[in-house]
Design a protein that fits this description.
- The protein is of the alpha+beta class.
- The protein contains 13 helices and 23 strands.
- It has helices at about 1-10, 30-50, 65-75, 75-80, 145-150, 150-160, 205-220, 270-280, 305-315, 355-370, 380-390, 400-405, 425-435; strands at about 15, 30, 55-60, 80-85, 90-95, 115-120, 125, 135-140, 165-175, 190-200, 230, 245-250, 255-265, 285, 290-295, 295-305, 315-320, 330-335, 345-350, 375, 395-400, 410-415, 420-425.
- The strands form seven sheets. It has a seven-stranded mixed beta sheet with strand order 3-9-10-16-13-12-11, with helices on both faces. The protein has a five-stranded mixed beta sheet with strand order 20-19-21-22-23, sandwiched between helices. A three-stranded antiparallel beta sheet has the order 5-4-6.
- The longest helix has 20 residues, at about 30-50.
- The two termini are about 30 Å apart.
- The site of adenosine-5'-triphosphate (ATP) has 15 residues, from strand 10, strand 13, strand 16 and helix 9.
Protein backbone atom coordinates (compact mmCIF):
# COMPACT_ATOMS: atom_id res chain seq x y z
CA UNK A 1 0.00 0.00 0.00
CA UNK A 2 2.75 2.49 0.98
CA UNK A 3 4.61 1.76 -2.24
CA UNK A 4 1.57 2.66 -4.34
CA UNK A 5 0.77 5.75 -2.25
CA UNK A 6 4.36 6.96 -2.63
CA UNK A 7 4.37 6.31 -6.35
CA UNK A 8 1.11 8.26 -6.66
CA UNK A 9 2.55 11.23 -4.76
CA UNK A 10 5.93 11.18 -6.49
CA UNK A 11 4.45 11.09 -9.97
CA UNK A 12 1.65 13.53 -9.22
CA UNK A 13 -1.13 10.99 -9.72
CA UNK A 14 -2.84 11.80 -6.41
CA UNK A 15 -1.82 14.28 -3.71
CA UNK A 16 -3.42 15.71 -0.57
CA UNK A 17 -5.93 18.48 -1.14
CA UNK A 18 -5.06 22.02 0.04
CA UNK A 19 -1.55 20.83 0.85
CA UNK A 20 -0.06 24.34 1.02
CA UNK A 21 -2.38 24.92 4.01
CA UNK A 22 -1.42 21.65 5.67
CA UNK A 23 -3.99 19.58 3.80
CA UNK A 24 -7.61 18.74 4.49
CA UNK A 25 -7.54 15.32 6.06
CA UNK A 26 -8.48 12.56 3.65
CA UNK A 27 -9.36 14.85 0.75
CA UNK A 28 -7.32 14.24 -2.38
CA UNK A 29 -6.53 15.99 -5.64
CA UNK A 30 -5.86 14.15 -8.87
CA UNK A 31 -2.81 15.38 -10.78
CA UNK A 32 -2.17 15.31 -14.53
CA UNK A 33 -1.74 11.53 -14.74
CA UNK A 34 -4.34 10.81 -12.06
CA UNK A 35 -7.05 12.70 -13.86
CA UNK A 36 -6.39 10.69 -17.04
CA UNK A 37 -6.48 7.43 -15.11
CA UNK A 38 -9.74 8.40 -13.45
CA UNK A 39 -11.32 9.42 -16.75
CA UNK A 40 -10.25 6.09 -18.25
CA UNK A 41 -11.85 4.10 -15.41
CA UNK A 42 -15.05 6.09 -15.87
CA UNK A 43 -14.86 5.70 -19.64
CA UNK A 44 -14.47 1.92 -19.37
CA UNK A 45 -17.44 1.71 -17.01
CA UNK A 46 -19.54 3.94 -19.29
CA UNK A 47 -18.57 1.89 -22.31
CA UNK A 48 -19.47 -1.40 -20.60
CA UNK A 49 -22.64 -0.16 -18.94
CA UNK A 50 -24.09 2.28 -21.52
CA UNK A 51 -22.46 2.54 -24.94
CA UNK A 52 -22.05 -1.17 -25.61
CA UNK A 53 -25.67 -1.95 -24.64
CA UNK A 54 -29.01 -1.29 -26.29
CA UNK A 55 -30.86 -1.35 -22.96
CA UNK A 56 -29.12 1.29 -20.79
CA UNK A 57 -29.20 5.08 -21.17
CA UNK A 58 -27.26 7.79 -19.34
CA UNK A 59 -28.29 10.60 -17.02
CA UNK A 60 -26.63 13.48 -15.20
CA UNK A 61 -28.82 14.71 -12.37
CA UNK A 62 -27.92 17.49 -9.97
CA UNK A 63 -25.95 17.05 -6.74
CA UNK A 64 -28.34 19.21 -4.73
CA UNK A 65 -31.88 17.88 -4.95
CA UNK A 66 -35.14 18.72 -3.22
CA UNK A 67 -34.95 17.66 0.47
CA UNK A 68 -38.18 15.75 -0.23
CA UNK A 69 -36.07 13.27 -2.18
CA UNK A 70 -34.13 12.33 0.95
CA UNK A 71 -37.25 12.25 3.09
CA UNK A 72 -38.92 9.83 0.69
CA UNK A 73 -35.83 7.66 0.13
CA UNK A 74 -35.40 7.13 3.86
CA UNK A 75 -31.97 8.76 3.97
CA UNK A 76 -32.93 11.49 6.43
CA UNK A 77 -34.21 8.90 8.84
CA UNK A 78 -31.79 6.03 8.36
CA UNK A 79 -28.60 7.08 6.58
CA UNK A 80 -26.46 6.81 9.68
CA UNK A 81 -23.50 4.85 10.98
CA UNK A 82 -23.12 3.77 14.62
CA UNK A 83 -20.46 5.92 16.32
CA UNK A 84 -18.57 5.02 19.51
CA UNK A 85 -15.90 7.01 21.31
CA UNK A 86 -13.02 5.69 23.42
CA UNK A 87 -13.41 7.30 26.86
CA UNK A 88 -9.61 7.21 27.34
CA UNK A 89 -8.41 9.01 24.22
CA UNK A 90 -11.70 10.37 22.80
CA UNK A 91 -10.97 8.88 19.38
CA UNK A 92 -14.15 8.05 17.45
CA UNK A 93 -14.80 4.89 15.49
CA UNK A 94 -17.52 3.24 13.47
CA UNK A 95 -18.85 0.61 15.87
CA UNK A 96 -19.29 -1.92 13.05
CA UNK A 97 -15.63 -1.52 11.98
CA UNK A 98 -13.96 -2.46 15.28
CA UNK A 99 -14.14 -5.26 17.85
CA UNK A 100 -15.80 -3.63 20.86
CA UNK A 101 -14.55 -6.43 23.15
CA UNK A 102 -10.95 -5.37 22.57
CA UNK A 103 -8.81 -2.41 23.61
CA UNK A 104 -8.89 0.83 21.62
CA UNK A 105 -6.98 0.49 18.29
CA UNK A 106 -5.74 4.07 18.79
CA UNK A 107 -4.50 4.31 22.44
CA UNK A 108 -4.45 0.62 23.37
CA UNK A 109 -6.45 1.17 26.58
CA UNK A 110 -9.85 -0.12 27.55
CA UNK A 111 -12.13 -1.40 26.22
CA UNK A 112 -14.06 1.64 27.44
CA UNK A 113 -16.54 2.76 24.83
CA UNK A 114 -19.40 5.21 24.99
CA UNK A 115 -22.83 3.92 24.03
CA UNK A 116 -23.14 3.72 20.24
CA UNK A 117 -25.11 6.62 18.82
CA UNK A 118 -26.37 6.97 15.26
CA UNK A 119 -24.29 9.53 13.40
CA UNK A 120 -25.89 11.12 10.33
CA UNK A 121 -23.80 10.86 7.17
CA UNK A 122 -25.36 13.44 4.88
CA UNK A 123 -23.56 16.78 4.45
CA UNK A 124 -25.88 19.72 4.91
CA UNK A 125 -25.77 23.22 3.52
CA UNK A 126 -28.19 26.10 2.89
CA UNK A 127 -29.60 27.14 -0.43
CA UNK A 128 -29.94 30.89 -0.96
CA UNK A 129 -28.84 33.89 1.09
CA UNK A 130 -30.65 33.13 4.34
CA UNK A 131 -29.34 30.36 6.58
CA UNK A 132 -32.44 29.11 8.32
CA UNK A 133 -33.90 25.68 8.71
CA UNK A 134 -36.38 26.28 5.89
CA UNK A 135 -33.68 26.19 3.25
CA UNK A 136 -31.51 23.30 4.42
CA UNK A 137 -30.39 21.14 1.51
CA UNK A 138 -28.12 18.11 1.32
CA UNK A 139 -25.23 17.12 -0.87
CA UNK A 140 -26.31 13.79 -2.33
CA UNK A 141 -24.84 10.70 -0.61
CA UNK A 142 -25.56 8.55 -3.70
CA UNK A 143 -26.35 9.30 -7.32
CA UNK A 144 -29.12 6.69 -7.44
CA UNK A 145 -31.99 8.93 -6.38
CA UNK A 146 -31.57 11.01 -9.55
CA UNK A 147 -32.42 7.92 -11.59
CA UNK A 148 -35.52 7.22 -9.49
CA UNK A 149 -37.01 10.69 -9.48
CA UNK A 150 -36.33 11.06 -13.23
CA UNK A 151 -37.48 7.52 -14.03
CA UNK A 152 -40.69 8.44 -15.85
CA UNK A 153 -39.11 11.38 -17.72
CA UNK A 154 -36.21 9.25 -18.94
CA UNK A 155 -38.42 6.29 -19.83
CA UNK A 156 -40.72 8.46 -21.91
CA UNK A 157 -37.92 10.44 -23.57
CA UNK A 158 -35.88 7.36 -24.46
CA UNK A 159 -38.93 5.17 -25.24
CA UNK A 160 -37.21 2.25 -23.54
CA UNK A 161 -39.25 -0.70 -22.45
CA UNK A 162 -38.61 -2.73 -19.36
CA UNK A 163 -36.12 -4.28 -18.77
CA UNK A 164 -33.87 -1.24 -19.17
CA UNK A 165 -31.41 0.74 -17.10
CA UNK A 166 -30.37 4.33 -16.32
CA UNK A 167 -26.72 5.00 -15.53
CA UNK A 168 -24.99 7.96 -13.94
CA UNK A 169 -21.51 9.00 -12.84
CA UNK A 170 -20.87 11.87 -10.48
CA UNK A 171 -19.76 13.17 -7.12
CA UNK A 172 -21.33 11.95 -3.89
CA UNK A 173 -20.67 13.13 -0.35
CA UNK A 174 -20.75 11.35 3.00
CA UNK A 175 -19.63 12.71 6.33
CA UNK A 176 -17.72 9.50 7.12
CA UNK A 177 -16.77 8.97 10.77
CA UNK A 178 -13.39 7.49 9.93
CA UNK A 179 -12.16 8.41 6.47
CA UNK A 180 -8.81 6.98 5.51
CA UNK A 181 -6.79 4.27 3.80
CA UNK A 182 -5.70 6.65 1.05
CA UNK A 183 -8.55 7.12 -1.43
CA UNK A 184 -10.54 4.14 -0.15
CA UNK A 185 -12.80 6.16 2.13
CA UNK A 186 -13.19 9.90 1.66
CA UNK A 187 -15.98 12.38 2.34
CA UNK A 188 -16.16 13.50 -1.27
CA UNK A 189 -15.93 10.78 -3.88
CA UNK A 190 -17.20 9.87 -7.29
CA UNK A 191 -19.75 7.16 -7.96
CA UNK A 192 -20.80 5.12 -10.97
CA UNK A 193 -24.26 3.69 -10.51
CA UNK A 194 -26.79 1.99 -12.75
CA UNK A 195 -30.41 1.30 -11.87
CA UNK A 196 -31.78 -1.57 -13.94
CA UNK A 197 -35.59 -1.66 -13.93
CA UNK A 198 -37.16 -5.10 -14.30
CA UNK A 199 -40.51 -6.81 -14.00
CA UNK A 200 -41.13 -8.13 -10.47
CA UNK A 201 -40.49 -11.87 -10.44
CA UNK A 202 -37.57 -11.55 -12.89
CA UNK A 203 -35.44 -9.66 -10.35
CA UNK A 204 -33.48 -12.65 -9.00
CA UNK A 205 -32.42 -13.66 -12.50
CA UNK A 206 -31.30 -10.12 -13.37
CA UNK A 207 -29.48 -9.81 -10.06
CA UNK A 208 -27.40 -12.88 -10.94
CA UNK A 209 -26.81 -11.52 -14.44
CA UNK A 210 -25.45 -8.20 -13.21
CA UNK A 211 -23.22 -9.82 -10.60
CA UNK A 212 -21.58 -11.85 -13.35
CA UNK A 213 -21.24 -8.84 -15.66
CA UNK A 214 -19.62 -6.76 -12.97
CA UNK A 215 -17.18 -9.47 -11.83
CA UNK A 216 -16.08 -9.87 -15.44
CA UNK A 217 -15.51 -6.13 -15.83
CA UNK A 218 -12.81 -6.20 -13.14
CA UNK A 219 -11.18 -9.36 -14.47
CA UNK A 220 -11.17 -8.07 -18.03
CA UNK A 221 -9.40 -4.86 -16.96
CA UNK A 222 -6.65 -6.64 -15.06
CA UNK A 223 -7.76 -7.43 -11.50
CA UNK A 224 -6.23 -10.73 -10.47
CA UNK A 225 -8.91 -13.39 -9.82
CA UNK A 226 -7.34 -14.38 -6.48
CA UNK A 227 -7.82 -10.81 -5.20
CA UNK A 228 -11.52 -10.65 -6.05
CA UNK A 229 -14.45 -12.29 -4.29
CA UNK A 230 -18.19 -12.02 -3.89
CA UNK A 231 -19.78 -11.75 -0.46
CA UNK A 232 -23.46 -11.74 0.34
CA UNK A 233 -24.75 -9.29 2.97
CA UNK A 234 -26.01 -10.79 6.22
CA UNK A 235 -29.62 -9.93 7.07
CA UNK A 236 -28.51 -7.34 9.64
CA UNK A 237 -26.25 -5.57 7.11
CA UNK A 238 -28.94 -5.05 4.48
CA UNK A 239 -30.03 -1.48 3.72
CA UNK A 240 -33.65 -0.64 4.47
CA UNK A 241 -34.57 -0.91 0.77
CA UNK A 242 -32.71 -4.09 -0.13
CA UNK A 243 -34.03 -7.62 -0.62
CA UNK A 244 -30.53 -9.03 -1.22
CA UNK A 245 -27.12 -7.44 -1.71
CA UNK A 246 -23.78 -8.81 -2.82
CA UNK A 247 -20.50 -6.97 -2.44
CA UNK A 248 -17.62 -7.42 -4.83
CA UNK A 249 -14.61 -7.33 -2.53
CA UNK A 250 -10.93 -6.85 -3.21
CA UNK A 251 -8.10 -8.01 -0.98
CA UNK A 252 -6.39 -4.65 -0.36
CA UNK A 253 -2.86 -5.04 1.05
CA UNK A 254 -2.83 -4.10 4.72
CA UNK A 255 -6.63 -3.80 4.83
CA UNK A 256 -7.85 -7.23 3.80
CA UNK A 257 -11.09 -7.94 1.97
CA UNK A 258 -12.98 -4.68 1.50
CA UNK A 259 -15.90 -3.53 -0.62
CA UNK A 260 -15.25 -2.35 -4.15
CA UNK A 261 -18.83 -2.43 -5.32
CA UNK A 262 -22.29 -3.28 -4.02
CA UNK A 263 -24.90 -4.97 -6.21
CA UNK A 264 -28.29 -4.64 -4.57
CA UNK A 265 -31.81 -5.74 -5.33
CA UNK A 266 -33.55 -2.51 -4.28
CA UNK A 267 -37.02 -3.91 -5.01
CA UNK A 268 -39.72 -1.35 -5.87
CA UNK A 269 -38.97 0.58 -2.67
CA UNK A 270 -37.71 3.82 -4.20
CA UNK A 271 -40.20 4.23 -7.05
CA UNK A 272 -43.08 3.54 -4.68
CA UNK A 273 -41.73 5.90 -2.02
CA UNK A 274 -41.33 8.75 -4.52
CA UNK A 275 -44.76 8.12 -6.01
CA UNK A 276 -46.33 8.36 -2.58
CA UNK A 277 -44.52 11.48 -1.49
CA UNK A 278 -44.64 13.41 -4.77
CA UNK A 279 -48.13 12.35 -5.80
CA UNK A 280 -46.71 11.55 -9.27
CA UNK A 281 -47.30 8.03 -10.52
CA UNK A 282 -43.96 6.37 -11.22
CA UNK A 283 -45.41 2.98 -12.09
CA UNK A 284 -44.79 1.46 -15.53
CA UNK A 285 -47.37 0.44 -18.09
CA UNK A 286 -46.42 -2.56 -20.20
CA UNK A 287 -47.92 -1.97 -23.68
CA UNK A 288 -47.79 -5.70 -24.55
CA UNK A 289 -49.43 -7.22 -21.48
CA UNK A 290 -51.38 -4.07 -20.57
CA UNK A 291 -50.19 -4.60 -16.99
CA UNK A 292 -49.20 -1.69 -14.76
CA UNK A 293 -46.63 -2.24 -12.04
CA UNK A 294 -43.77 -0.73 -10.05
CA UNK A 295 -40.56 -2.17 -11.50
CA UNK A 296 -37.99 -3.83 -9.27
CA UNK A 297 -34.48 -2.41 -9.42
CA UNK A 298 -31.10 -4.13 -9.62
CA UNK A 299 -28.33 -1.68 -8.79
CA UNK A 300 -24.59 -2.15 -9.38
CA UNK A 301 -23.07 0.77 -7.41
CA UNK A 302 -19.37 1.53 -7.27
CA UNK A 303 -17.02 4.41 -6.55
CA UNK A 304 -14.36 5.43 -9.06
CA UNK A 305 -11.53 5.64 -6.53
CA UNK A 306 -11.67 2.16 -5.00
CA UNK A 307 -11.42 0.23 -8.30
CA UNK A 308 -8.77 2.67 -9.53
CA UNK A 309 -6.72 1.97 -6.41
CA UNK A 310 -7.15 -1.79 -6.95
CA UNK A 311 -6.14 -1.54 -10.63
CA UNK A 312 -2.95 0.26 -9.57
CA UNK A 313 -2.12 -2.35 -6.93
CA UNK A 314 -2.58 -5.31 -9.26
CA UNK A 315 -0.62 -3.59 -12.03
CA UNK A 316 2.42 -2.85 -9.87
CA UNK A 317 5.58 -4.89 -10.58
CA UNK A 318 9.25 -4.64 -9.68
CA UNK A 319 11.54 -6.42 -12.11
CA UNK A 320 15.20 -6.81 -12.94
CA UNK A 321 15.78 -5.35 -16.40
CA UNK A 322 18.96 -5.35 -18.54
CA UNK A 323 20.74 -2.01 -18.99
CA UNK A 324 22.58 -0.83 -22.10
CA UNK A 325 25.88 -1.54 -20.30
CA UNK A 326 25.06 -5.26 -19.96
CA UNK A 327 24.11 -5.11 -16.27
CA UNK A 328 20.67 -5.32 -14.73
CA UNK A 329 18.73 -2.76 -12.75
CA UNK A 330 15.42 -2.61 -10.95
CA UNK A 331 12.57 -1.42 -13.07
CA UNK A 332 9.23 -0.43 -11.62
CA UNK A 333 6.40 -1.23 -13.95
CA UNK A 334 2.70 -0.47 -13.92
CA UNK A 335 1.31 -3.24 -16.07
CA UNK A 336 -1.98 -1.41 -16.53
CA UNK A 337 -4.39 -2.50 -19.20
CA UNK A 338 -3.66 -0.08 -22.12
CA UNK A 339 -7.29 1.10 -21.92
CA UNK A 340 -6.59 2.41 -18.41
CA UNK A 341 -3.07 3.75 -18.96
CA UNK A 342 -3.00 7.54 -18.45
CA UNK A 343 -0.56 8.13 -21.32
CA UNK A 344 -0.86 5.86 -24.35
CA UNK A 345 2.41 6.69 -26.07
CA UNK A 346 5.57 8.64 -25.22
CA UNK A 347 7.85 10.07 -27.89
CA UNK A 348 11.51 10.26 -26.94
CA UNK A 349 14.30 11.72 -29.06
CA UNK A 350 17.40 9.59 -28.43
CA UNK A 351 19.11 12.71 -27.10
CA UNK A 352 18.55 16.46 -26.86
CA UNK A 353 20.50 16.90 -30.10
CA UNK A 354 19.18 19.86 -32.10
CA UNK A 355 18.47 17.69 -35.16
CA UNK A 356 16.48 15.08 -33.22
CA UNK A 357 14.19 17.20 -31.05
CA UNK A 358 12.20 18.74 -33.94
CA UNK A 359 11.70 15.29 -35.47
CA UNK A 360 10.37 13.95 -32.18
CA UNK A 361 8.12 16.99 -31.82
CA UNK A 362 6.66 16.39 -35.26
CA UNK A 363 6.00 12.72 -34.50
CA UNK A 364 4.39 13.63 -31.18
CA UNK A 365 2.17 16.29 -32.80
CA UNK A 366 0.97 13.76 -35.29
CA UNK A 367 0.22 11.10 -32.67
CA UNK A 368 -1.47 13.56 -30.32
CA UNK A 369 -4.46 13.89 -32.65
CA UNK A 370 -5.33 10.24 -31.91
CA UNK A 371 -3.65 9.16 -28.67
CA UNK A 372 -2.79 10.75 -25.34
CA UNK A 373 0.86 11.46 -26.10
CA UNK A 374 3.76 12.61 -23.97
CA UNK A 375 6.95 14.14 -25.35
CA UNK A 376 9.86 13.52 -22.99
CA UNK A 377 13.17 15.10 -23.95
CA UNK A 378 15.40 15.35 -20.88
CA UNK A 379 17.58 12.70 -19.25
CA UNK A 380 19.13 9.53 -20.61
CA UNK A 381 16.85 7.48 -22.80
CA UNK A 382 17.08 4.58 -20.32
CA UNK A 383 15.83 6.82 -17.52
CA UNK A 384 13.00 8.10 -19.67
CA UNK A 385 11.92 4.53 -20.46
CA UNK A 386 11.84 3.84 -16.70
CA UNK A 387 9.75 6.95 -16.06
CA UNK A 388 7.21 5.80 -18.61
CA UNK A 389 7.21 2.20 -17.33
CA UNK A 390 6.51 3.45 -13.83
CA UNK A 391 3.28 5.14 -14.92
CA UNK A 392 2.20 2.37 -17.27
CA UNK A 393 2.71 3.98 -20.71
CA UNK A 394 2.20 1.03 -23.08
CA UNK A 395 4.44 2.30 -25.93
CA UNK A 396 7.52 4.47 -26.27
CA UNK A 397 8.52 5.75 -29.70
CA UNK A 398 12.16 6.73 -30.13
CA UNK A 399 13.57 8.95 -32.87
CA UNK A 400 17.30 8.48 -33.46
CA UNK A 401 19.89 9.61 -36.01
CA UNK A 402 18.79 6.92 -38.50
CA UNK A 403 15.32 8.49 -38.42
CA UNK A 404 16.80 11.54 -40.15
CA UNK A 405 17.70 9.31 -43.14
CA UNK A 406 15.08 6.57 -43.25
CA UNK A 407 12.09 8.32 -41.59
CA UNK A 408 11.57 5.32 -39.31
CA UNK A 409 11.23 5.21 -35.53
CA UNK A 410 11.53 2.48 -32.92
CA UNK A 411 8.49 1.35 -30.97
CA UNK A 412 9.21 -0.22 -27.59
CA UNK A 413 6.50 -2.22 -25.86
CA UNK A 414 6.27 -1.70 -22.09
CA UNK A 415 5.93 -5.25 -20.76
CA UNK A 416 8.18 -7.26 -23.09
CA UNK A 417 10.49 -4.32 -23.88
CA UNK A 418 10.48 -5.69 -27.46
CA UNK A 419 11.41 -3.15 -30.09
CA UNK A 420 10.27 -2.75 -33.67
CA UNK A 421 11.23 -0.30 -36.40
CA UNK A 422 8.24 1.37 -38.11
CA UNK A 423 7.98 4.09 -40.81
CA UNK A 424 6.74 7.37 -39.32
CA UNK A 425 3.94 7.55 -41.91
CA UNK A 426 2.59 4.17 -40.82
CA UNK A 427 2.95 4.86 -37.09
CA UNK A 428 -0.58 6.05 -36.17
CA UNK A 429 -2.22 3.07 -37.89
CA UNK A 430 0.36 0.67 -36.50
CA UNK A 431 -0.29 1.87 -32.94
CA UNK A 432 -4.06 1.83 -33.43
CA UNK A 433 -3.83 -1.83 -34.47
CA UNK A 434 -1.76 -2.68 -31.41
CA UNK A 435 -4.31 -1.02 -29.14
CA UNK A 436 -7.07 -3.11 -30.67
CA UNK A 437 -5.49 -6.30 -29.30
P1 LIG B 1 -18.89 1.07 3.25
O1 LIG B 1 -19.59 -0.08 3.90
O2 LIG B 1 -17.45 0.79 2.85
O3 LIG B 1 -19.07 2.37 3.99
P2 LIG B 1 -21.20 1.33 1.60
O4 LIG B 1 -21.73 -0.05 1.64
O5 LIG B 1 -21.83 2.37 2.45
O6 LIG B 1 -19.61 1.31 1.84
P3 LIG B 1 -22.43 1.91 -0.87
O7 LIG B 1 -23.48 2.73 -0.26
O8 LIG B 1 -22.78 0.52 -1.33
O9 LIG B 1 -21.18 1.82 0.10
O10 LIG B 1 -21.78 2.74 -2.05
C1 LIG B 1 -21.47 2.19 -3.29
C2 LIG B 1 -20.00 2.33 -3.61
O11 LIG B 1 -19.57 3.68 -3.49
C3 LIG B 1 -19.07 1.56 -2.70
O12 LIG B 1 -18.98 0.23 -3.08
C4 LIG B 1 -17.75 2.29 -2.88
O13 LIG B 1 -17.08 1.86 -4.08
C5 LIG B 1 -18.21 3.72 -3.08
N1 LIG B 1 -18.10 4.45 -1.81
C6 LIG B 1 -19.01 4.52 -0.82
N2 LIG B 1 -18.59 5.30 0.18
C7 LIG B 1 -17.36 5.76 -0.18
C8 LIG B 1 -16.40 6.62 0.43
N3 LIG B 1 -16.64 7.20 1.59
N4 LIG B 1 -15.25 6.87 -0.23
C9 LIG B 1 -15.00 6.30 -1.44
N5 LIG B 1 -15.87 5.48 -2.07
C10 LIG B 1 -17.04 5.21 -1.45
Amino acid sequence: MDTIVNLCKRRGIVFPSSEIYGGLRSAWDWGPLGVELKRNVKQQWWHAMVHSRPDVVGLESSIIMSPNVWEASGHIETFTDPLVECTNCNKRFRADHIDLERSCPHCGNGPAWTEARQFHLMLKTHMGPVEDSANVVYLRPETAQGMFVDFAAVQQASRKRIPFGIAQQGKSFRNEITPGNFVFRTREFEQMEMEFFVEPGTDDKWHEYWIEQRMNWYLDLGIRPENLRLREHEADELSHYAKRTFDIEYNFPGMGWSELEGIANRTDFDLKAHSERSGQDLSYFDPDTKARYFPYVIEPAVGVERPLFAFLIDAYREEEAPTAGGKTEKRVLLKLDPRLAPTKVAVLPLSKHQDLVPVAERVADRLRTRFVTDLDITGSVGKRYRRQDEVGTPYCVTADFDTLDDNQVTIRERDSMDQERVPVDALPEHLAKRFEH
